[in-house]
Each structure stands twice: as C-alpha cells, then as structure tokens.
Amino acid sequence: MPLIKKLKLIMFILLGILxxxxxxLFKLPSQPIFKENQNLKEKLIGNFSNSLTAAxxxxxxxxxxxxxxxLSLNQLTDSYLRQYTGKEELRINFPKLEKMLSEELSSExxxxxxxxxxxxxxxxxxxxxxxxxxxxxxxxxxxTSFNIARNLAKAQLSTSLVVDEIVPEITQNSLAKxxxxxxxxxxESDFQGSTKGRIHNIEVGAAKFNxxxxxxxxxxxxxxxxxxxxxxxxxxxELVIKNGKLIPEFGGGICQVSTTLFRAAAIxxxxxxxxxxxxxxxxxxxxxxxxxxxxxxxxxxxxxxDTGNNILIQNHIExxxxxxxxxxxxxxxxxELGGPKILEQNSNGSMKTVLxxxxxxxxxxxxxxSFWSNYKSPASFPLERNPLE
Length: 389
Description:
Mean pLDDT: 82
Shape: elongated
Strand order of the largest sheet: 10-18-17-11
Structural class: alpha+beta
Low-confidence stretches: 21-38, 40-46
Number of domains: 2
Strand content: 25-35%
Number of helices: 9
Distance between the termini: 123 Å
C-alpha cells in the first residue's frame, strides 16, 4: 500500500479514537437541550464539575418579572464516575431540574390566554359581552434549564426564567370591524360611606350604560339612555338635591354614575356638549370640580363621538369604586388634564374650581378648554324629611 494512503488511514483511525475518547470524557445525559448549543459542551468540560461542587450547598436564584425564588442545587445534581480519571464528578440531572421547574414555578407563571369576546345585540344597539384579547404565558422549562446550565458553568448562581407568550385563538381581528381595538380612557370615583340604598341605585343606574355602543358622529345623552327613574324600575328613595333642598327621592346616587362617566369622557378627549356641576361640594365626588350632575328633563350630561369609529362604554365596581372604561380606536390625540384647581375656598364650604383640558390632535392642532364649577355652601341646603318616616 502506498505510503500516503497508509498515512491517511492512520489519521482517520486516530481521529475516530479521539472522537470516542471525547465522547466518554464528556458523557452527560442525552437531553435535547444540548443539541441547541454544542459550544456549551466545550465550556463544561473539566470546570463544570468543579463549579457544581463549589455551589452544591448553595442556592440557585431564578427570577421573572419582579419576583424571584431560590432552588436547592443539592436536588439538581448527580454524581458519576469519569472514566478517564476514575474520579467521581458532579453533573446536572436535567430531568430533575425540569421537574422542579414544572412543579415549583410553572403554576406561578402560567396564565391562560383570553380570547377576544364580542356579542352584539343589534335590536338594542348594545354589546352584551366584550373584552379585549389577552396573551397567555407559560414557563419554557427546556430553555430555562439550558440557561441554568450555561450560567452554572460560569459559576453564576442566578438565572432569568424563559417565559413564552401564548397568543389567543381569537384576536382583535373580530373587534377591529367595529373599531374597538384600544382602551381610550378609564374614569373612576369612590362611593365609600354610601347607604345601602344609594349603592343599590348606583348599581342599577350603571347597568344602563354597560355595553353601550356609540356610533361615529353620534351625540350621547345620559338622560336618554337612563330612562325612567322610579320604583317600578327598581330604584330606591335616597337623598337628591332639588329646589334648594336635600329631598329623599327615587334614584338618589345616580350622579355617581354620571360623574364617573364624565371623567372617562373627559379623559378620552371627547367633546363635552353639556355638563353641570353640583350645587354644593359632595364628598363622593372628590376631587371637587370633576363632577357632573344630572336630573331627568332638567340637567343632562352630553358628549359626542368624534373619533371616526365606534366607541364602547363599559363599567364595573371594584370595592367601593365605580369604574367606567371607554374603548375605541386610537386616533393619535393626546389629552392632558390640569387640576381640578381650587380657585376659592371658604369656611362655610363654598368654593370655586376649574378643570383645564388640553387636547393635542395627531396633526399637532391644540385645543384647550376649561370646566368651571361654582359650589355654594352645603349649609344652604336644608334636609327635608320624608313625610312617611
């Protein structure tokens, strides 16, 4: 056999032996994770066992969002006999590591995706059920295990968890047809300290405006959507301001609803066509100067949908807070509120305030307007008792 051929054969045999020795020297569990990055093997040879031995009695800190948790490395390592040295070494037990991640962390991180929901009642021009889609998430145990091994090889005892997002099956595509793709504003007020009857009236009144769809260019009237306010419509008798007095009347407390909706509409940047403050400062409507009183056929709250797309009114109660949300399409307008600022405050409780709203359109056009409130003294409004009491 020619000399060159003999030399090639010998080199081929030597390379084969070297490959076998390298495999035996670095005989780790056959986990799919190592197929993702073969360079990690080179980093782990020799020093990896030493790093694990030094860290064995310590804790591994894993973190996600603003949280963190310590894992015991004692439970994550195995000893094995390295063949070429005959010495007992340490290596990561990846099945144990992935099991620990699944059992101790997956449930804390897991969040199921929420599909977009939209149920429209065309007969009443209302949305029965609505919610924007929300992505879910789950812990990627395989990639996280890989990152832990890589960091331990560098003697690092901390690792960020790898969290994957899960996209819901039904996304905003079904909502985009109506232009409901963004939360435009959120207004809230606190009715803490209200009587049971007043709270009941707030709940009944707020339900009239939940799921209300306002079309492009449409003018909204609170009173038109409120309907009749009497005992037949489940309202209870509570105090209202009427004719310079505090009088028990059906629907007392509905102004909590109009006030909260006014706040959401103002923050949305919608044109306010009609708004009137209360006659005197009412503690349920703090901060003073950001309220809207209504009374059927007397005083109304009106605004216009000038967004070019539908807007949707939603509301719910959280504890003692009433919350209104306005959904629609973001047309680029920016809204800044200044105040409400107290201009004058007297010892008898009377005061004057101003709320300034600055709206900057997408083209840079700026509109600034003021909402003035002039409150009389609460002492000027005597309480008229119900003759049936």
